[in-house]
Amino acid sequence: MTRTVSAMSNTSFKDLQNQAKDVYKRYEAHFGGKARATRDLDLLDELLDELDDVVDGAKQSLNGGRNPAMVSLLEMAKKNLKVYREEREAIEKAKAEGPSSKEASRLVTEANLTFGRYYRHFANENRRTRDPGLLTELIVELERIRGQMQKLADAGDDSIGSDIEVVETNLGMYRDEFRAIEQAQQSGTAEEQADIWASLANDQFGVYRAHFAGKPRPTRRPALLERVVSQLKRIHKAMFELKQGGLVSQGNERNMEIVSKNLEVYESELKEIRKARESVTTEQLVGSLGAAANEVMAEYREDFAGENRKTRDLEQLGLICDRLCEIAYQMRAIQRDEPTDINEKNLNIVLDSWTLYESEYKKVEQAQAGA
Hints:
12 helices, mainly alpha
């Protein structure tokens, strides 16, 4: 995954305006409101150079004249240059505080992204339709984050204490919700339960279609398919217990058969994915994950960037968030086991974009609720 710097072919007002707008958007996406210790100074230097070009181009175009639009563009560019340079100094200072500050910032970002996943998949939803496997994943993720935050606190990072409290509060809520979901899915008549299990099975089939069907195996996360398989086994067991309990239903019988057939396919695919991942080097995997991330971000730009929020597909945006999550988890695992500079840069870009998309999800939701 690479960033490119576009060059201006001339200094017309439109070219300069588009160049400036592109810089402002990229700055907002990667630096606005973000934890400074985790920011990419090379990218900020690129933006500063591009904005310098805009200023120089505007000055040359004016050449002593007083074109109001060009003057306004120049003043805004100079103002933002000052802000960006000050931000660069602040980022350098934050990085100089050491790895603890950078790690704390990353953990806070990861916690907030986990809260976003919970919001999209569980907040205000019918508990009988929710995926306890996904909720377990969120709980494990927050437990990991809390443990790493606690290590920083034990090492003397006093700033992380309030963040630990937020994570612990959410952990307690998620654990309570897990128990409530399990209880809700086991309630109702046998016929009602059969319908619920069928719906939950269809949801797992949907996860497979969205993340695995027709996708390159090396970039698939085995743990996600393991989760799907585990949930389908749970669903099949529940369907069988309804039958053993006296439910006479051709639909339930047929659904059991469908779940069994899909389980065979998915377990076979899981083996193929593991083999495919063993056949690629870390360098190849880093490149493939970067390409996969670019595809997801291109889809967002095509269907969401600058569009009317009231007309956007919220389900598609949620899936974009989930697909970036899958990529981020794999990049993080590489950085833990076989770290590389390019993978770290790519991971930062993915986390920035994922954060932006989670925020956009709520804004789209709010716009459509207002409509």
